């Protein structure tokens, strides 16, 4: 097997770096989108359904942060 | 706490704040690099890398990495309120960097700030070498500068 140079800038390295970058973007996008939804008319179950996770999971992940941000988490329809 | 311990504690704290504000799930070696640049590093500065320049290089690396997957961020990262109480855990790249740093000295009390930088710079793969390359920085040369600073 020929020696292939493992470079931090090769096409494969770019793809691997893309994975990390996309995860960071996805995390931030989730935080931003959930915050915007909850500042609007969305309910926890609706956000959960849109994300494809349980209501408990989305609440556990975001509630504390949103309360600290002053978002009203009153009960909503749905 | 020794001067070095205080330095390392400050760097780790700053790195954690950077990780939190850029939405990272963990503190990574590139956050340590940002923190070192913020503390003022002669080696980095002599290569033209103040904190702003390091940040630009990292932003460039982030954009390039997204582009490899065909993603372009039109308006920058979306805004989100972080959890004020949560501090991101230390990631693998930081552990690896610090391990490398400590392996550079025989005794812990020989540790200097420059060793922390060297540990970060010695990563062959990942965000730090990519960002430095994109900024046109010769990583080997930068390591030399850090070594010179440590030996002084």
UniProtKB/TrEMBL annotation, chain A:
It comes from the Bacteria. This is Helix-turn-helix domain-containing protein.
Automatic annotation (TrEMBL), chain B:
One of its GO terms (biological process) is proteolysis. GO terms for molecular function: peptidase activity. Residues 4-65 form the Clp R domain. InterPro entries: Clp_N_dom_sf (IPR036628), Clp_R_N (IPR004176). Keywords: Hydrolase, Protease. This is Clp protease N-terminal domain-containing protein.
């Amino acid at each position: 097997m020929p020696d292939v140079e493992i470079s931090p800038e090769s096409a494969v390295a770019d793809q691997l770096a893309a994975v990390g970058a996309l995860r960071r973007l996805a995390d931030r996008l989730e935080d931003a989108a959930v915050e915007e939804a909850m500042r609007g008319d969305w309910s926890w179950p609706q956000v959960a359904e849109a994300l494809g996770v349980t209501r408990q999971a989305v609440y556990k992940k975001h509630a504390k942060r949103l309360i600290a941000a002053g978002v009203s988490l009153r009960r909503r329809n749905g | 706490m020794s001067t070095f311990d205080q330095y390392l504690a400050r760097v780790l704290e700053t790195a954690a704040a950077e990780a939190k504000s850029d939405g990272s799930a963990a503190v990574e070696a590139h956050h340590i690099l940002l923190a070192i640049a913020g503390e003022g590093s002669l080696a980095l500065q002599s290569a033209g890398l103040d904190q702003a320049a390091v940040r630009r290089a990292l932003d460039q690396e982030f954009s390039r990495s997204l582009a490899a997957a065909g993603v372009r961020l039109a308006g920058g990262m979306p805004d989100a309120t972080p959890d004020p109480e949560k501090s991101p855990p230390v990631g693998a790249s930081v552990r690896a960097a610090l391990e490398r740093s400590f392996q550079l000295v025989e005794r812990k009390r020989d540790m200097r700030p420059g060793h922390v930088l060297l540990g970060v710079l010695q990563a062959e793969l990942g965000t730090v070498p990519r960002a430095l390359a994109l900024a046109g920085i010769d990583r080997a040369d930068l390591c030399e500068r850090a070594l010179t600073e440590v030996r002084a």
